[in-house]
């Protein structure tokens, strides 16, 4: 199974398009082409494409906050007029910015409606579904398409659409956001189409005033040439206000991301320091272990030459029985196992006392193993405690 075939993740969703016939392929390829041309923060992002079986799979940005239809029905209708107006301006501004990206490429969406306006995880508006979008090329009009209640008069009277057809659809969406009511909708589909064809819309409420009211009325002109351009709508006072709000919001989001990234870098540094510390401890332990395993070549420190002689790792005590001898070893052995061999030659009939002490032992002047030590069972080896008085 292809790793991308999970239909939805936290950030992505897969849209399948039939990819069998030449007609299927043409439609699917055109949608991909449109998406590639209009990529922006105001449109749903196309992440990847791949074929699987008889389908072309589009990996799209997943907009987890739903569509505008849900927002209108479940949230906006419960808000007061002032709140709905502000949402209308802010949502409307971002829809217009997305439309502007399309129209700069001479692309007509042809199916703008609340269901095709999505909200991402941050609540930002994105235009989606470019399956019916079409480039104008050199023609003045293209064939009509889309959802009946949002199609303009020219779609019914002339079966054609142009750039200004999207302005008509935007006008309906904008009024729906603010009022919760479709301005042309009637009791039946037939009556609704009749209202659209004649440009007969329900009276706008009194709280829609000034320049924005005039622009809405112009958006619903049957004559496409009398409808305002996107730039004209964006230049009105309320849209300028919405633009400033959007800029401030984007600025705050960037600052928030910078702080999060900075925090992430600090966290990374803490983790890296901990890792290096652990690595250093492991290396130190390894070195200590190696030191324990490496044999040492001791050097004997003899207080007086008459006590004996040393060669390499051997010390030979003098044959004079009257000489007591204390020999130190350099380096001091701090860890590991020490083996000491005592060999007696030509000493039959004599007893000897031999002691082994660590560096903590301190002998009183004139004292030796026979004085401070503990005699072993064989009377020849004396084992000393760690500290001697």
Automatic annotation (TrEMBL):
Catalytic activity: L-seryl-[protein] + ATP = O-phospho-L-seryl-[protein] + ADP + H(+); L-threonyl-[protein] + ATP = O-phospho-L-threonyl-[protein] + ADP + H(+)
Entry keyword set: ATP-binding, Coiled coil, Kinase, Nucleotide-binding, Serine/threonine-protein kinase, Transferase
Molecular function in Gene Ontology: ATP binding; protein serine/threonine kinase activity
InterPro entries recorded: Kinase-like_dom_sf, NEK_Ser/Thr_kinase_NIMA, Prot_kinase_dom, Ser-Thr/Tyr_kinase_cat_dom, Ser/Thr_kinase_AS
Residue runs in coiled coils: 231-293
Highest taxon listed in the record's lineage: Eukaryota
Keyword hit for Nucleotide-binding: yes
PANTHER family, alphabetized: CAMK FAMILY PROTEIN KINASE, SERINE_THREONINE-PROTEIN KINASE NEK1
Record-given protein name: non-specific serine/threonine protein kinase
Organism the protein comes from: Streblomastix strix
Phylogenetic placement of the source organism: Eukaryota, Metamonada, Preaxostyla, Oxymonadida, Streblomastigidae
